[in-house]
Amino acid sequence: METQKFEIISAKSNIDWIGRKVTGAHNGTIAIKEGSLTFADGQLTGGKFAIDTTSIKILDIADPATNAQFAGHLASDDFFNSENYPEAQFVVTAINKESNDAYGITGDLTIKGITHSVSFDAQVTAAADTVSATGKVVVDRTKYGMRFRSGNFFKDLGDTLIYNDFDLNVNITAKAV
Question: Where is the Lipid/polyisoprenoid-binding YceI-like domain (predicted)?
Answer without folding.
Answer: 5-175
